[in-house]
């Protein structure tokens, strides 16, 4: 968080700090920045040494590939092959929380460490002014996983990044809490039949409504690309997580949802007292971190409806609850 002189590396985004951050990226150093979903831990995607620093800082298994962030569709087309349907998706949903997995062009300059040996890459154009200014100022495709230690809850505030990664990054641009609070939807559009690899802020229903095309749920999922065998457990707080709780047991913290919550004298946070799934998604990771910090050994989670954004929220909660390695 602070260097040997006591100065913090957390900065308010201004034209000056953004150009300093872009200089760090060009110099092969790591910069954490806000996106509309969660904070990203960015590096120059064409520089293998810089990308290796991401894996090292996160303590991330090498085989879990990274998302490349680009300033616009043309920058993405220089890296990968767009089918007409992929172009349509980008036209409708970019900038925004949709990641496309596409076949890499043979002349793609992206480091092979980014795709972890796959012949596809994941790309997205984020919709956050700070992320976009940073991408433009750097002139680079930026590889950025969520800015948390591997397996931890994703970072939705600059403080989360500072506490997980602190001095491992050259700079943390503080854009306040992120809007969606859940990672992007990932659609594999590299083959004829597009597949949903990770549910997120843009639901399969929304894609169907906008394009008339049904997106099948992938057999695997983005946290376990077929090439990797990555563990189910992910987004995990230190405390254990018990799902679909209708009562609170002694010693448990409560992660509530909606107006009718079971009685408890222990720590509790309501994701949305009105039962609003968008508000719940935005609050999820901050709430898990805060309940974890309360010291409870178990977090009891009330049922969340599995519709709309609830699908993405329940996906993250199932991973938080699944057995740890
Ligand atoms: O909202 C987000 O997507 C955030 C912000 C920072 O943009 N990023 C993010 O990155 O969530 P990360 O690294 O935590 O998750 C990336 C996911 C991983 O689950 C990875 O397996 C999948 O994308 N992925 C990346 N490249 C892939 C590929 N070529 N094929 C299949 N899945 C891939
Ligand atoms: Mg992540």
Which terms summarize this structure?
325 residues; 10 helices; 16 strands; 30% helix; binds threonylcarbamoyladenylate; binds magnesium ion
Average pLDDT metric: 91
* Beta-strand percentage range: 15-25%
Rough shape? globular
**Which spans of ≥5 residues are poorly predicted at pLDDT below 50?**
221-231
Q: Major sheet, described briefly?
A: 12 strands, mixed
Oligomer: single chain
Sketch the topology as an H/E string, one letter per element. EHEEHEHEHEHEHEHEEEHEEEEHEH
Structural class computed from helices and strand pairing: alpha/beta
Alpha-carbon distance between the two ends = 28 Å
Percent in helix: 25-40%
* Cα-based radius of gyration, to the nearest Å: 19 Å
Kindly state the number of beta strands.
16
How many helices? Answer: 10
**Bound molecule types:** threonylcarbamoyladenylate, magnesium ion
